[in-house]
Design goal:
The complex is a heterodimer of chains A (137) and B (184). Chain A has helices spanning 15-31, 58-76, 116-135; strands at 35-42, 47-51, 85-89, 92-98, 104-110. Chain A has 137 residues and is an alpha+beta fold. In chain A, a hairpin with a 5-residue loop joins strand 4 and strand 5 (104-110). In chain A, helix 1 (15-31) packs antiparallel against helix 3. The model of chain A has no long low-confidence stretch (mean pLDDT 92). Chain B is α/β, with parallel strands linked by helices. In chain B, strands 4-5-1-6-7-8 form a six-stranded mixed beta sheet, sandwiched between helices. The mean pLDDT of chain B is 92. Classes of the chains: A alpha+beta (137), B alpha/beta (184). Chain A binds chain B through residues 7, 10-12, 42-46, 57-58, 61-62, 64-69, 71-72, 76, 103, and chain B through 28-37, 45-49, 68, 70, 72-73, 75-76.
């Protein structure tokens, strides 16, 4: 296979994606120490990076399914685009949203004492910075 | 009466296509861009489930759920397996080891195979030399002599093929239910 026909590097293996993903996760955990787990994943469930590791890629796989199901529901109900996904549990929150313009998703698990609005706003900030960094590559 | 049928099998076997061929309603899909083009060279992959329906009669409906082919989504397998009463297992004959793939799914879904119906559809049999149907049936007869599993070549794009496979599975399911009543 020559350079003209070489397959593009998968997003989760591309150093120019992994580095800004790591930065985005650090942005998030620096701003909100109550993040229990966070991951950047491809939309088909491969982890690009995660802090701390959660059963290898299991959080990424589950977040991918959750994103896919949520977007299917929004599509079926003709409600436009899905902006973010929130799961409110007895012991914490899961917040996830797409990285604008990318086939990537940020998913984060927060302790219950973290205000949901703050968790969501910080995730939005992190993905916007991440998207800007990816565009500037 | 309603039947809930899983469409299972490795990535690239044709599960989403099969449900689209069969469904009377627009299929609900959860497809995402495929990052793993080495595993299957196709642009998208199912990440949660596909859903379609067939209205057999006014009173009888078949609900079809396609599950993701990759093991990293096995939590979805468990969620959907528990509510299903039958399985259509698709394997593509040009995969590296399709007979073993079938065997692994039969083990993974053993409880569903035991309480419900199961049928195996072998796709892409026309794409070069591969395993014969006997290779599949020999393994099933050796490892699951207690189950009667229809095995047939299918093109998932062909509604007729898929109806025959699905109805074989439903017949298998209903026959076992009747047999169970007789034994009880």
């Amino acid at each position: 296979m020559n350079a003209l026909t070489a397959a593009p590097v998968a997003l989760h293996k591309d150093p120019s994606v992994i580095a800004p993903a790591t930065t985005a996760l650090h942005d998030l955990t620096d701003l909100i120490p109550s993040v229990r787990y966070a991951t950047v994943l491809t939309e088909d469930g491969f982890e690009v990076d995660g802090v701390p590791a959660y059963e290898e890629d299991k959080l990424s796989s589950m977040a991918s399914s959750l994103q896919g199901l949520s977007e299917a529901v929004v599509r079926e109900l003709t409600m436009g685009g899905a902006q973010y996904v929130i799961v409110a549990a007895d012991d914490g929150h899961v917040v996830q949203l797409r990285v604008p313009g990318q086939q990537l998703v940020l998913a984060a698990v927060f302790d219950l004492d973290e205000p949901l609005g703050n968790a969501l706003a910080t995730c939005r900030f992190a993905v916007e910075r991440f998207a800007t960094a990816l565009t500037a590559r | 009466m309603e039947h809930i049928v899983l469409f299972a099998g490795p990535m690239g076997a044709g599960k989403t296509t099969a449900i689209k061929s069969l469904s009377d309603i627009p299929v609900i899909t959860t497809e995402a861009a495929n990052s793993d083009r080495d595993a299957a060279d196709k642009p998208t992959t199912t990440v949660a489930m596909d859903y379609g329906e067939i209205g057999v009669t006014d009173e009888e409906k078949i609900r079809m759920y396609g599950i993701p082919g990759q093991r990293r989504f096995d939590f979805m397998w468990r969620i959907l397996r528990d509510r299903a009463d039958g399985m259509v297992l698709l394997v593509h004959n040009d995969a590296p080891d399709p007979v073993n793939a079938m065997r692994e799914y039969m083990i993974e879904f053993a409880d569903l195979c035991e309480r419900g119906g199961v049928a195996v559809g072998v796709t892409r049999m026309d794409v070069g030399p591969g395993r014969t149907l006997t290779d599949y049936t020999d393994v099933l007869e050796r490892e699951r002599p207690d189950l009667m599993v229809p095995v047939m070549p299918v093109d998932p794009r062909d509604r007729g093929h898929m109806e025959l496979l699905l109805m074989s599975m439903i017949a298998n399911l209903e026959m076992r239910a009747e047999y169970g009543k007789v034994l009880a």
